[in-house]
Amino acid sequence: MSEFHNSVWSDLTGVSFSQGFLDAGGIRTRFIASGSPDKPLLLLLHGTGGHAEAYSRNLGAHGEHFHTVAIDLIGHGWTDKPAKGYEIGDYAAHVLKVMDALGRKRASISGESLGGWVAAYIAIHHPERVEKLVLNTSGGWTAHPEVMNRLKTLSMEAVNDPNPERIRQRLEFLMHDKSKVNDDLVETRRAIYAQPALKAIMPEILCLQEMEIRRRNMFTPEQTLQIKAPTLVLWTSHDPTATPEEGRNIASSIPGAKFVVMNECGHWPQFEDAPLFNRIHLEFLRAE
Question: What is the mean pLDDT of the chain?
Answer without folding.
Answer: 97
